[in-house]
Design a protein that fits this description.
2 domains; Rossmann fold; 32% helix
């Protein structure tokens, strides 16, 4: 065996070893920036962010005077658990809270398709009264229940559910000003900070906002 043949043999063996080694590694795209090779970001390499992996949740707020904490705290709880929040309102691209929060609206209520969501949450604040007799909103609440979605309402928003007829015979709570309306609609008013009955979760106000979000998350995980 000549020296040249030995060299060729060793080069050939090294080549096949290299192929076998790199064949076991995941393939990645290479991005060039400023003449330098830069590793791909997780999104470009096909990885997904945690947010949204569990499904989408619709949060309904009034165009004006929704209660800030009742939106922000449950939203944070659910987003941290991997859900994507879609914010809907009526006739507004930007909604304003009672305490000064400004929220970009993702969707008009007339465009909502309940089948896209695992849960629908109605946020309170004085502005929520605009939905008490709004047929689009009442129908969304009824459709959510008929499709087996988790449904939440806080502060005065449980009156939306009561007016839609989906709380009759069920345990529920609300801000104290809504108690009589709930009772008149056949609801077993509990007066608790948070009440769950099946897949329906209600809460009585901003102090219960985080616990409200946690209870919705618990129900989602159990069904």
């Amino acid at each position: 065996m000549s020296f040249d043949f030995k060299q060729k043999y060793l080069i050939l063996i090294s080549f096949f070893l290299a192929l076998s080694l790199f064949g076991c590694l995941p393939r990645q795209e290479v991005i060039k920036k400023g003449g330098e090779e830069v590793p791909p970001s997780p999104l470009l390499s096909g990885a997904t962010e945690g947010q949204g992996k569990m499904g989408k949740i619709l949060m309904v707020i009034a165009p004006n005077n929704f209660r800030d904490e009742e939106y922000q705290k449950p939203k944070a709880v659910l987003e941290n658990a991997g859900y994507q929040i879609v914010t809907a309102s009526k006739g507004a691209q930007v909604a304003k809270g009672m305490l000064g929060a400004v929220v970009n609206v993702d969707l008009d209520l007339a465009q909502v398709k309940i089948g896209d969501y695992v849960a629908v949450v109605f946020i309170g604040g004085s502005g929520a009264s605009v939905y008490f007799d709004d047929q689009i909103v009442l129908n969304l609440a009824k459709e959510a229940v008929s499709q087996g979605k988790v449904v939440g309402a806080i502060c005065i928003a449980p009156s939306i559910l009561a007016n839609a007829g989906i709380l009759k015979g069920k345990n529920a709570t609300s801000f104290s000003s809504g108690a009589e309306n709930l009772k008149a609609k056949g609801v077993n008013y509990t007066g608790q900070s948070v009440t769950a009955d099946g897949k329906i979760v209600t809460a009585n106000g901003p102090e219960a906002a985080e616990a409200f979000g946690q209870k919705i998350l618990e129900i989602l995980r159990n069904f």
